[in-house]
Design a protein that fits this description.
With about 450 residues, the chain is α/β, with parallel strands linked by helices. The protein is built from 17 helices and 21 strands. It has a 6-stranded mixed β-sheet, sandwiched between helices. α6 packs across α10, α6 packs across α11 and α12 runs parallel beside α14.
Length: about 450
């Protein structure tokens, strides 16, 4: 039975190309484990850039056919998306190799370090990255396990979602979507927000209550009604504008094109980022760092150098008065926030969205329509292509076009292009004047290449 980081030496990952899985694989390689893994996307000729970067670190990668899993492996790690019918799960059982899910392994890793776990339904990856950058800039040499690559680490040739530091602190993204967040017992739990996403609000609140109970110190966003109800001590919490009594307060938010500025406890901050939600993320990261002894001035210096993370308001460039921005937004609140963040950049936003998963899209249909409709200005547009299907037994009983019809019923400029490869040529006549072309979607590993190709062909 695997109970400690020291109980295994040669783990094999099933679904290693996934953001969460690749991060843990890199972390384990960084602490000396002999890591290998497989992914079905490798069989399809996709996720090649992830494979190349993993193999450059000495992590062997294979197609998901069961051939490379042997009795020499002493642990099999499977993501939540890997079903028991997968050939390598079956083979691991035949060989008697222990099988654990990603979330369980992450909790074992978290127990081996002083850990800050970042939770919430929006902003986790960005806040994790910002906090890591602050602690790193302050000389604390932290480790990180995140769901998205930091641009600063990607520039070093890494995937960017994990790094092993020599310091005592590990900053990690804690996922509520699969319930894994309740397994962690962090030194500091940070809760950003709670919105309907994957599960109903009351179910999520129960999950985050357990997260609070398992955290030695718990820091929450007092500007969010649901999170404020879970406060442990308002003096260690954060909030903005009218919120009173918090230890860390942001005021004076302003966005000038691609730059935001604000004050935290009267100390000026300036970031090359978009949107008020990124002020909240920076405020959350600063609140935790300050409680670890980093001055607000040092936090501001670190965040002025913050380069962002992969596919979060990532500016690909500008061609002929068209800004192209790529974003991981995939739930209703995130999509609305991404649209609003782009509005100060240009008079018009033309947004494109590829929903992921038939079940999640059906579950959140009403919320998507309401949030996106509220965010769109009269001259903004929303486009969608068909829902991304990752395989498995999903029932295809909804289409992205159903959401488009709902948005049209609200008198919004909404359009459906079933095949995303036809989107650019279809949308070209709409890209007139100064405009932001915002691309949104998640889970599909080919989205990065799709966005880059679209920008190249624009």
């Amino acid at each position: 039975m695997i109970q400690s980081i020291h109980d295994f030496k040669k783990p094999f990952f099933i679904g290693i190309a996934g953001a969460g899985m690749s991060a843990i694989a890199q972390y384990l390689k960084g602490i000396g484990k002999e890591v290998s893994g497989s992914d079905r996307f490798f069989q399809q000729g996709e996720a090649g850039h992830i494979r190349d970067k993993l193999e450059a670190l000495g992590i062997a990668c294979y197609p998901q056919d069961g051939e490379r899993l042997t009795a020499d492996h002493d642990l099999v790690v499977a993501s939540a998306a890997v079903e028991d019918t997968v050939v390598e799960i079956q083979k691991a059982k035949q060989l008697g190799i222990p099988i654990i899910r990603r979330s369980e392994l992450l909790s074992i890793i978290a127990a081996s370090k002083k850990t800050i776990a970042v939770g919430g339904t929006s902003g986790k990856s960005t806040t994790t990255a910002m906090l890591f950058d602050i602690l790193d800039y302050a000389g604390m040499q932290p480790s990180i396990i995140s769901g998205a690559g930091l641009v600063s680490l990607i520039k070093k040739g890494l995937i960017g979602n994990a790094q092993v530091g020599t310091g005592e602190w590990l900053v990690m993204e804690a996922d509520e979507s699969d319930g894994s967040i309740v397994q962690y017992k962090p030194d500091i739990g940070l809760l950003l927000n709670v919105e309907k996403d994957h599960k109903e609000l009351n179910v999520l609140m129960d999950v985050f209550r357990t997260f609070k109970e398992n955290s030695r110190k718990f820091v929450v966003n007092q500007s969010h009604p649901a999170t404020s109800s879970l406060s442990q001590d308002i003096k260690q919490d954060f909030g903005f504008d009218e919120i009173q009594g918090v230890g860390y307060k942001a005021t004076g938010f302003h966005q000038d094109g691609l730059e935001i500025s604000f004050l935290i406890n009267n100390v000026p901050f300036k970031l090359q980022q978009l949107g008020k939600h990124n002020m909240e993320n920076a405020l959350a990261a600063t609140a935790v760092a300050a409680q670890l002894g980093v001055s607000l001035e040092k936090c501001a210096e670190a965040l002025s150098r913050y380069e962002g993370i992969y596919r979060r308001n990532q500016v690909l460039g500008k061609k002929d008065n068209v800004w192209v921005i790529d974003d991981f937004a995939h739930n209703p609140v995130k999509c609305a926030a991404a649209i609003r963040a782009c509005q100060p950049v240009a008079p018009r936003v033309v947004a494109w969205f590829q929903p992921h998963g038939y079940g999640p899209t059906k579950f959140l249909r009403h919320d998507f329509v309401e949030e996106i409709a509220a965010a769109l200005r009269d001259n903004d547009e929303i486009w969608m292509s068909e829902i991304f299907y990752a395989g498995g037994t999903a029932v295809k009983d909804i289409s992205a076009n159903d959401l488009i019809r709902d948005l049209r019923a609200k008198n919004k400029q909404a359009y459906f292009v079933e095949d995303r490869n036809e989107f650019l040529e279809t949308v070209r006549p709409h890209l007139t004047g100064s405009v932001v072309l915002l691309l949104m979607g998640a889970r599909d590993p080919s989205l990065e290449e799709f966005s880059k190709k679209l920008y190249h062909d624009l």
